[in-house]
Amino acid sequence: MRLNFILFLCILKKIFSFNIDISSPTYKVGPSNSHFGFSVAEHFNGNNFIFLIGAPKANSSQPGTISAGAIYSCPLNSYFRYKSSINDKWCSQAYVEYQNKERYKLPPRTKDDRGITIDSKGSDFQLLGASVSSSGKINGRAIVCAPLKRYHEGVSYTDGSCYVLGTDLSLTSIIHNCNGGRLSKQERHNSYGACMQGFSSSIDEEVILTGTIGTKAWTGGIHATFVDKSDDVFAINIDRTTLGFEEREGGIRENKLFEKGDYVGYSVKHGRFGFWYEDKKNFTIVSGSTRHNQSGSVVFFPFMSIQDQSYEEMLPTNDGFMLKGNQIGSGFGYSVEIVDLNNDGFDDLIVGAPYEFFIDIKGNEFHGAVYVYFSSGKFQSRDQNELVFKKPIILRGKEKYSQFGISITKLGNLNRDEYGYNDFAVGAPFGDNGAGVIYIYFGSKDEKTFNTKPAQIIPASKLGISPRQSPLKSCGFSLSGGSDIDNNGYPDLLLGCVLSDTVVALRSKPIINIITDHSMVNTSLNIDGGVNCPRGSRTCFDFTTILSMNPSYSKEKLVDYTKDVFICHLETLSFQSGVDKRVKIYGSRDGYSLNWECGKNLNKQSQRKIHKLYISKDNTDWLNPLKLKFSVSIKDQTKTSLPDEGEPLINLNNYPILNKYNSTHEVLISFNKRCGDDDKCESDLELGATFLDISQNKKGKFVTRVGEKDSINIKFVVKNKGERAYESRMYLQYNHDELDVPQLDSTKKLSSVNLESYENNITIFSLGNPIEPGKVITFHVIFKLVKSEGQRTSNILSFKAILNSTSIEKNDKDNFWEEELEIIKEAELELSGVSTPQMNYFGTTSDSLPESELKYEEDIGPMVKHQYTVTNKGPFYVRDVFVEFDWPFRIDHEDGENNYALYVLETPTIIEADKSIRHCLVEDAYDYINPQKLIIDPSLKVENNIKQKGRNKREVEEGKIFNIPDIKISTKNFLGSKGLEPIEATDSNGSPIMIVDVHCKNNYVMCFKIKCHFNYIESESSAQIEFRARLWNRTFIDHYTNVEYVQISSSGRIIIKPEQGVVDDQSNNFFTISTHAYPDRPKLQTQEVPILPIILAIIVGLLILGVIILICWKCGFFKRKRAGDGPLLHKAELQYEREMWHEMR
């Protein structure tokens, strides 16, 4: 049959209050600096509760003593101030050291009432009240100790002493085992000269325990007394001790089980845990030994009550079983407490390690620890003591240096749960910035269900306090609990705030034990269904809330059930982070929450209320369950307040609270997913894909040629060969540097497929919710090429797609598709250029200034521009393009001069297609760009000329091309460089001429490189690179006047990274620009000519000249003004540049 199910659970949340009231505590403030509250105990004087408080540094009021310590008995009332006009109602001092109270009015004697010798100063600083304990029962007894009490006149042996008190705090007996002849003090503290009996103590109606941590050089020890009441007539005291037996066979120091300084007896308790020997008369004593093995331990001593003197010695277990601390200096065993946490009849053990330090894997620090050892719940055999306890649960303090675990106390069944689980409290006296914090933990069925989160956290700074009180400090240094001090049926808690000399009583509020629940007609929801559903919903259902009383507490009348005393609240929650609420409540204002009054006659019958819940049509999540919370609170609940001094205490029965666990009910409701009898959807998705209109090469790879505006179309096919696939999605990964966000082909109408989201290189497509069994979905995804901005540009595009759904996938091997596509990006880059002007002239030696007199750029020679053009003829754009140039900088001559060739005046300029201007990169530009630091004409800068509209006169002049006649030069008298030899060339008429070719492939020409970078060069666009330089006149005048011309060339080449995959014909990626420099005067012929032809030529010439002059005279020619002889071409050009330069200045 179909398994439809509903899950519900109650979630425990960390809160800071439960039923211990913190608004109206009861205070007792003791004498200043007395350490009032160093130890506390809940005690009953008959039926009347009193605070039993130790103040070990107080003055005892006995004459002749100094800071002997005091015990205070305080009633439960609102009088809190010490030494007030109402001091008798505050507290009274308990005179516990003498049976005759009048003895306190006299100085200490050398012998006490029993005739035992006492040091005359033995009560000074004895720390009376350092240890206080009570059975906590009506008519119970108590014990108080002074661990530094000294006997023996003139010898300061700190024997220690404990005083057993009756219910009225009268002295019934004194325990001081170290003050006896059997225990030698010959070796002082190495024997029994510093027992410090009473450093710790414990008492109930059966057992009295005292710790003696100073015996045998602070090895420590324990003394125990058991009161056997099995005889109805007589009660027999049975004593057991480690004192005097430490080094005998089996003793605590035999075989080095314990050594000097181990502090056995630092804390003492007793219980019955499941050791083989335990029964009603035989039990186990537990003692903390905080320095054992430097990390501390807890040791177990069997107490055998058999009446035999041979059993007087108390030994550890037969195998020396103990629990050991985990960290050096942790103080493991500083405090111990015995609590039956799960009410199984076997005691459980709680151990404090207040100095333990821990760092978790997230780096969080924890200070202090408490170890919770659940008993195994059965008696173990003699050789299986290690099985008595289960693996510990470790609780850790989250505040730095808080000393979490320095005190622990049992609380009884604080919340009065119906299972009888006992609870406990842990003190962290230096948490909350030194004010102190108390943590409350509840018992549980077993260690698996134990909640490590505190049921209540009580920071002392949050306690209600009188304006006349000082701020609290170190609260929780001592704790005592488990007794009901105000008779309301709930145990309460005392805590000592030792550094503020204050004790606080925190009382518990009564608890209303209601039960919240729900019911539904169907145990799961159909996706399509429901009756009378609200408009706009896809499905709806009835949800019934149920409120009832816990039958175990139905007779309690803490509120008036004749009217609605509660507020019921129903709300919808998100199933988890990132999941929408989805379900709405009909009749709710916001759709997600609803309140109503409830609780009338709840003590007689439960209350039910039906709610219409619905889910809208636009919901897509049908797999995650719905989450609802039904909770109840008390209507018009008021808060308690702190009464003024002398006023009656607040009656907490008038301020009940709801059980925080049962007053909240959370439920998870699943959907009927129609996926078989087990309601588990096992889908089997299959993914296939192919490139459209793209073929494969012989190697089986997909290859295509693309342009900038081309796109890539992928056809995807998804099949479901299994059960319903809910929230199906396809995750598509691609090269986002090369491709735009993909889009669905709008011409293919597929309502079930949507582009859901995209981020970086992953796009998510929702495919349907659900994809029905057998359904086939076909859709097309289109990618457009984009200009890449990253460095991962490649000619290989990678595509990865994976299917996923919230259903269970039976076969995920066919849910994946991966393919690569090689794209051929065709681009035609071309480098071209021109020299402006194409020809130039250099003058004679007399025309050139010395280098030391060069100041302006026009002083060095005529200007030359090399203008390169980079063109992309497409069809694809190209990115990350470099154009690298070799520039002829200097010619190597032996004269050592700066024989510059083309002297570059400014950094080469890039002129983009949009007329934006950038500059190329020249390494060590300081050495190559205007190294002589000549003054640059700003009007001639490339940037300024680009911004001008049209060309000015200077540009026209520079652009002139002069027709110079071919001149034959004799090579016999060539005056050029010894290194750079002329070469033979042919002029336009085919006649041989001699030229000098200055280019960077010649070893005598020093060049430097220039790099120009382009991020993008669009298709059908171009950019220019302009070099502005001048001929270095001096170089050419000194070396190249006897040649036809000098050809000076720069060259450039386009560089594209091959990994881009751009296909480019590189034959036109190289270009050279040449400038021809001609001497300004032609060199005269030096060949010998016969004299006679010369004379005849002169005569003929003169005759012809005379005839011409005569004709001109006759025609009046000489009446016109004759212009003077003009300058040489080079001089005229330089003169014109100087005039223009001076006009601008």
UniProtKB/TrEMBL annotation:
The signal peptide stretch is 1-17
Give every Integrin alpha first immunoglubulin-like domain span: 508-666
Q: What keyword terms does UniProt attach to this protein?
A: Cell adhesion, Glycoprotein, Integrin, Membrane, Receptor, Repeat, Signal, Transmembrane, Transmembrane helix
Query: Where does the protein end up?
Result: Membrane
Gene Ontology molecular function, alphabetical: integrin binding
**Pfam families (alphabetical):** FG-GAP, Integrin_A_Ig_1, Integrin_A_Ig_2, Integrin_A_Ig_3
Q: Name one GO biological process term.
A: animal organ development
Annotated FG-GAP repeats reside at 22-83, 318-382, 390-450, 461-523
> What Gene3D superfamilies would the database entry show?
Bicelle-embedded integrin alpha(iib) transmembrane segment (1.20.5.930), Integrin alpha, N-terminal (2.130.10.130), Integrin domains. Chain A, domain 2 (2.60.40.1460), ntegrin, alpha v. Chain A, domain 3 (2.60.40.1510), ntegrin, alpha v. Chain A, domain 4 (2.60.40.1530)
Q: What does the sequence similarity comment in the record state about its family?
A: Belongs to the integrin alpha chain family.
Q: What is this protein called?
A: Integrin_alpha2 domain-containing protein
